[in-house]
């Protein structure tokens, strides 16, 4: 009887220890890999996307969509997305290890921040040029907290023209999807996205969608059948 009791207690103790260790490992894993507040839902094959709108924020299959057609209210201030920031830091660290001179330039910008950016560029480059590469307040992806601009310390005469030809840009186009990012405004697709090619502008959409969009050499608007030409 005593032997059975000892065996039973031993089994109970071992089981409890295993449960505690498993719980601790789960907590550590969650800290090392923060979960995204954006959905990993992508478009089902041969199916139209599901568009929802709530409080002025439009989502397509769970992903916030922001462009010249779909905007965000001035009151929308989510701050920087933690998962997206974690991934951009990983990307930049990987670039540094491979001797690629990529640097963080900007991330989250509020409606009012974007308004100031537009005013500054308009004074410098004029309204028409500014509109080709700078979003109006409420229509900037930076307001989502999911977009980042990167750059380089490599000397360039005209960053907007020269970055495309750099080793940094080539590396970025090859590795962005590995970290859940897409080049949001790809080359030759301005009629669909509404903006000129910006090889430095990254949008976090999660690994699954990033890989699909990159492999298909497309953009969010085309992938989700938003077939309005945005000019």
TrEMBL record:
Please name the GO terms of the biological process aspect recorded for this protein, alphabetically.
proteolysis
Q: Which GO terms describe its molecular function?
A: carboxypeptidase activity
Compositional bias (Polar residues): 128-137
Where the record annotates domain D-alanyl-D-alanine carboxypeptidase-like core, the positions are: 82-206
The record's SUPFAM superfamilies line, in alphabetical order, gives: Hedgehog/DD-peptidase (SSF55166)
Q: Which intervals of the chain are annotated as region Disordered? A: 123-142
- Stated name of the protein: D-alanyl-D-alanine carboxypeptidase
């Amino acid at each position: 009887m005593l032997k059975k009791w000892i065996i039973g207690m031993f089994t109970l103790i071992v089981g409890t220890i295993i449960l505690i260790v498993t719980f601790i490992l789960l907590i550590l894993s969650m800290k090392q890999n923060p979960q995204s507040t954006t959905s990993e839902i992508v478009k089902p094959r041969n199916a139209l996307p599901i568009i929802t709108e709530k409080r002025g924020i439009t989502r397509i299959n769970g992903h916030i969509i922001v462009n010249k057609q779909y905007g965000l209210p001035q009151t929308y201030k989510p701050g920087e997305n933690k998962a997206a920031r974690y991934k951009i830091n990983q990307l930049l660290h990987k670039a540094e290890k491979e001797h690629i001179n990529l640097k963080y330039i900007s991330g989250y910008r509020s409606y009012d921040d974007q308004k100031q950016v537009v005013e500054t560029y308009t004074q410098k480059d004029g309204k028409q040029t500014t509109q080709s590469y700078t979003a109006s307040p409420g229509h900037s992806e930076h307001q989502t907290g999911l977009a980042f601009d990167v750059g380089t310390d490599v000397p360039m005469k005209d960053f907007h023209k020269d970055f495309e030809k750099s080793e940094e840009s080539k590396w970025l186009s090859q590795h962005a999807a590995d970290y859940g990012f897409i080049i949001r405004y790809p080359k030759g697709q301005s009629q669909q996205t509404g903006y000129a090619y910006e090889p430095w502008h990254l949008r976090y959409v999660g690994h699954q969608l990033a890989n699909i969009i990159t492999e298909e050499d497309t953009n969010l608007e085309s992938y989700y059948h938003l077939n309005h030409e945005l000019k």
